[in-house]
Amino acid sequence: MFSTDVFTRPTTKTAWKPSPHVLIRFAGKSYEELDRLKFRQTVPVLDEIIALRTWVKRQKDRLCDELLYAEIGKHSGKTRGQLVALKRNIFNERAVPIAERQVLRTIGNATLRYEVLRYYRQLLRLERRMKQGRDLFTQELAQKRRLLQESFRDADFQKGIQLATPSLFAGLQHYLEGDAAAVNGRDQRTEAGAFRYFARMTAKTSPFGRFGPLALAAVQPESEQLFSIRTSGKLAMRSETSLNLSVVADLATSLSRIPEFQAHLQARVNYTYYLDGDEIVFLRPKLEDDQPVYTSMNSVRRGKYLPIMRQVVEFLEANKQQLITLNDVIHLLTGGAATDSAAYQKAAAFVYRLVHAGLILTDFQLPSNTRDRLSYLREQVEALDVPQAAAIGAKLQQLQENCQRFAQATVTERVQIHEETQQIINELMQWWRPPAEARAERTDYFMEDAVFADVQMQLGAPFFAPLAEDLGPFLECIHARDQGGLSHLMLRDIFVSNFGVGGSCHNLMLFALEHMRIMMNTMADRELDNKELFPRSAASNERALAYMKAFGNDETPTARREIVLPHETLHALTEEFGGQLAAPLSSALNVQIAAESWEAYERGDYLVAFNYALPGFGHFFTRYCYLFDNDPNSAPLTENLRQ
Fold first, then answer.
1. Based on the domain organization, do 493 and 432 belong to the same domain?
2. Which of 200, 314, 369, 591 would be a feasible disulfide site paired with 206, CB 3.0-4.6 Å?
C-alpha cells in the first residue's frame, strides 16, 4: 500500500503537518496470490542438493589435489596407472566399477580408501536427490502454473494487460488455452512478461490503471486511532476511462488539415509576438513530426510590421473573446468581397501566408487541465459552419461513447470496442498522420484509472506524528538546499545580469528569448558552475554536492549499504545551506507501508519506506484528484488544492 501525503509548514515557527487528504494506493490483487506460487516442496530439496553439491566439490578437490596426488607419487607401473585413472574418474564425477577400486586395498591406505568410498556414496546420493528434485520440480511447476493461469484469467488483470501491452494480451490468450504441464518457448516468454505485471499488481503497486487502484483517505490529526477503514463489502473497482490525450491531440491536428475546415477555424495572434520599433517579432513554432513545438531559437521570426499586417493583428487582438475565423479576417481585408472574386483570392493568399509563417494560429484549442479533451474538440468541430462538421462531430461523439462503454465492458467486449475505435480513428486521421505512426500503427487508444470508491479510510495522529518528527528535519534540509529549484535560480541569475538587482522588465518576450539563448549556450558549454555568470545556480550545485557527500553518494567507492543520518546532521546541513527558508513550504511525500498483516499494522508493528518527495502537492497527488470529484470529500479537497 502506498500513501501520497502532503505535508505543509506555514512558517519557520510551526511544525510540519499533513494536509486533510491522503491518496491511498492499494494492490490490485491480493499478495496471497503471489505467495502461493512459492515452491515449498522443491526448495528444501534444492537446498539439500546445493549442500551435497558443495560437499562433493570440496571432497573432490581434497581427493584429487591432496590425498590421491600424494599417493600417486609413491607408486609406479600398473599401480600408478590405476591410481591416475581413479583420480581422473573422481575428477569427472564418473562412477568406477568395484573391480577398479581394488587398487585401494592393494596399496593399503585405509584413510584414502575410506575418503574415496565416502565420496562415491555422497555422489550417488546427490544423483538420486537430483532426479527426485527434477521430478518434484516438474510436478510442482505444473501445479504453480495452473495457479498462475488462474490468476491470469482474472478480468481485472486481463483488462490491465489489454491497455498496458496489447501484444502481450494477445499472447496471453494463447498461453491460457495451453496445458500447464507442457509450455513451449513462446508461451514461456508470454508467461514471463505477464508475471512482471502480476508482480506489480500484487506487491509493487504500480501507479497506473487496475494494477494499483486508489482510494481517498481523510486525515484526523486529533484522533488517537492509527487508522480506520470501512467498506460496504467486497472491494470493487470503479473505472474512469478516457481517450489517450496524445490521440486527441493527433485528431485535432488531422481535423485542422481538412480543406473545408481551414477557413472556418478560429484565428488567434501568436501569443509570443511583440513589437520592436517598426518590426514585429515572434516565435514561429518549430515543426517536429509535423507538429508545432515552441522551443527552438531558430524559430524566431522578425520582419517589417506592414500596415496590412497591423490591421490583422489589431483586429484579432480587439476580438479575443469572439469566435473570429480566417474567413472573417479575409472579409476584413476585402470589405466583404465575394469568395470567388480576385480580391478575395488575393487577401486569402496573404492571410494563409501569415498562418504558414506562424503569426496567426488556427489549431483547435484543447484545455490542459482536464482529461476529457475529446468533448472540447467535438464542441469546436460542431460549431464550424461547414456541412462536413456534423458528420465529423458524430464520429467524435461515437469515440466518447466508446470511452464510456469501455469502462464497464468485459474483456471480450473491450476487444470489440477497441477495434471499432481503431476504425473510427483511422477514418479521422486520413488528413494527417504522424511519421512515427506511419511506420507502426498505434494501439494505445484508451487510458484508464481505477478507484475503490466504497472505501472510507481515516488516518490519525499515531500515523502522522512519527512521520512529521522523522521527516521534518529532512524536508527543511532539502528545501534549504534547493531554494526554489535550479531552474528558478538560473532564471533569477539571468534576470539580474540583464536588469540588475531590483530592476524591471518591460518586454517579457524579449527577456524570454534572451533567457532561452543563454540557457542553450550554457548547456552546450557546461558553464553551470560559473560563479560570475550564475552565482545562485553555482551555489546550488555546491549545496547539492555537500548533500550528496553527507548521504554517502560522493565519488569515493564505498561498500556501505546503509547510511544513518541523525537529526543533528540534517540540522547542521540546513544551517550550512543558509538556514530554514522563511517562505511557507509544502511537499508531497510518497511512502510505502510494510507489515506482516493488518493485525500487525493495527498494533503499530509496521515499517514506513519513504520513496521520494516532490515540492508542492506533487504530480502523483494532483494527477489523480479528478477521480474523486463525486466523493463526499471532493469540496474540501478542491478548496485545499486551491489554497
1. no
2. 200
Of 114, 97, 96, which Cα lies nearest the Cα of 105?
114
For residues 395 and 298, state if they share a domain. Answer: yes
- Residue 552 inside a domain? The answer is yes
Alpha-carbon span 147 to 135, nearest angstrom: 19
The verdict on 422 and 554 lying in the same domain is no
Residue 411 lies in a domain: yes
Alpha-carbon span 546 to 122, nearest angstrom:
58
- In this structure, are 415 and 557 located in the same domain? no
Identify whether residues 408 and 500 lie together within a single domain. no
What's the pLDDT at 150? 95
Spatial CA neighbour of 123 closest among 58, 44, 45, 41: 58
Residue ranges of the chain with per-residue pLDDT less than 50: 1, 294, 296
CA 211 to chain centre: 13
- Same domain flag for 442 and 506: no
Are 441 and 563 in a shared domain? Answer: no
Burial 61-89 (b: 16+ CB within 10 A, else e): eebeeebbeebbeebeeeeeebbeebbeb
Strands (E), 326-378: 360-361
Q: Are residues 556 and 427 in the same domain?
A: no
Domain of residue 420 covers: 245-449
Pairwise CA distance, residues 92 & 95, whole Å: 9
Task: Tell me whether residue 153 is in a domain.
Answer: no
pLDDT at 189: 94
Q: Which three cell numbers stand for residue 533?
A: 555568470
Ramachandran assignment for 95, one of left (phi > 0), alpha (psi -120 to 50 degrees), beta (any other): beta
Beta bridge partners of 280: 275, 303
CB 75 within 8 A of CB 55: no
Q: Are 221 and 468 in contact (CB under 8 A)?
A: no
**For the residues of 486-531, what is the DSSP string, one character each?**
HHHHHHHHHHHHHH-TT---S-HHHHHHHHHHHHHHHHHHT-TT-T
User: Where a domain ends, among 552, 576, 600?
Assistant: 576
**C-alpha cell read off for 47:** 537446498
pLDDT of residue 296: 46
Domain count, the chain: 3
Single out the residue in 84, 116, 139 at which a domain terminates: 139
Contacts of 605 (CB under 8 A, 6+ apart): 595, 596
The C-alpha cell of 393 is what? 462531430
In-domain check, residue 6: no
What local confidence, expressed as pLDDT, does residue 594 receive?
80
**Beta strand pairing status for 237-243 and 227-231?**
unpaired
For residue 349, the model assigns a pLDDT of 93
Q: Using DSSP, state whether 283 is helix, strand or coil.
A: strand
- Per-residue CA distances from 462 to 1, 217, 603 (Å): 18, 15, 11
User: Cell numbers 520582419 label which residue?
Assistant: 303
C-alpha cell at 557: 567507492
pLDDT, position 10 = 75
pLDDT tens for 336-369 read: 888 788 998 999 999 999 998 889 998 898 888 7
Whether 446 contacts 241, CB under 8 Å = yes
Predicted confidence at residue 621, as pLDDT, reads 76
Question: What pLDDT is stored for residue 31 in this prediction?
Answer: 85
CB 494 within 8 A of CB 515: yes
Residues 6+ apart with CB under 8 A from 617: 6, 19, 586, 588, 641
